[in-house]
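tool_log.txt
---
The assistant was asked to compare two proteins side by side. It first ran the structure predictor on the initial sequence, then on the second. Raw inputs and outputs are pasted verbatim so the downstream comparison step can read them without reformatting.
(1)
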Amino acid sequence: MSALLQLMWLASPALPIGGFSYSEGLEAAVAQGWVHDEASAAECLSQQLALTQTRADLALAARAFAAWRAADLPGLQVLNDWVLQTRESAELRLQSEQMGRSLLDWLRNHHTASAEQMQQCQALGQPTYPLVMALALASSGATLGDALQAYCFGWAENMVGAAIKSVPLGQRAGQRILARLVAETPAAVARAMALAEQDQRQAFSPMLAILSARHETQYSRLFRS
């Protein structure tokens, strides 16, 4: 299978890892009235891309991508521990753990990673989603830049789906928001790659953490986070 097809598969919201069931605090922002229409949803997701995805998960995935190709198990353990230690709410940590487990199960059934890599991934203890996705991307044969764009698009499409359901919005509004996120993706990927080289990852998004914590006890909700 070509690298392009593998990236398309990994970025698809149909990938059975549960991404569609999370809003990453967006549903709580809707409940608070902070996100209430297309413009506020687009701004919220744009800021989340720049402030959380780019500085944390994308940058970490870039470093993990190289570590998987170099078979650097100690480095991968450090990265996986960083994810677990920097999730700012119980919901966000559980999401990372659940999606990591589900993606690892998918990899076992599709043989895109080697048996040795699968063993190394299991040896991490609790493989998190960014680490397992980095393995899947590194096994695709794609370049780092293309791999991170696929990672980013998969996140964007799931989040737009969450916005459509929770605000709620129409499909055309969702496509306009997705177009904005796609336009911002190349810069986000370039920034994430630079942060990976300089080891300046950041996990500081206090308002997102507050929203996620509030969502844990929200009376009525559609999403798991």
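(2)
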Amino acid sequence: MNYHKLRRVFVWELPVRVFHWINALAITTLCITGYMIGKPPAIMFGGEAWERYLFGWIRYIHFVAAYIFVANFVFRIYWGFVGNKYANWKNFIPTTRKYFQEMWEVLKIDIFQTKPGEHMAVGHNALAGFIYFLTFIAFGIQVITGFGLYAAMSESWFAGLFTWVVPLFGADSGVRNLHHILMWFFILFTIVHIYLVFYHDYLKGRGEISSMGGGWKFIEEEAFQAEKAKEAAESKKAA
């Protein structure tokens, strides 16, 4: 077993943590209500449907959660430019050769297990950052398809911005199918994400779970010093 000296480091700022939990709640609400809209359950009721207005409420909750999701998503895009170095978009978009090299190293160590040791990173490692980047793209597609479907039944100016979506696909069915498939992508992503967070928290003891509550992580001293050296080198190069 390898032992590392750990340093307590503040990584996730409050806006990032707030985004994370609002996003988690919004996606959970959207997936549950979206599944019920796509496959309505058989509910026995003696009166008229309008008396309970059950699916009216389900759709209303879905639409409200969608607006919250969009606002939260737009805020996260903004914070990717003004937040600290761990929230910056540079950690998510592979633009350098070194980024791809780090992704390959993480794959060999954590996924293929063809290389011994462990990869140390203060924030997201390159592979995790890239996966989150793909997830953000999926967020955008889900917003476009969702509001494209909603535009036909809404007088909202915002929904009206997406009236071009359905004609682009030719019919509602194509948009609806893509929207539904992405729902299952988010469900699968959530399952894997929760598993990996608990697994790495147990395996490495870095406070992965609690870091989304208080923002602090326990980082290997080697990783912390390597990041400081990297920052110093980049500052010297920029100067």
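---
observation on (2): Residues 172-204 form the longest helix (33 residues). The chain has one domain: 15-41+48-201.
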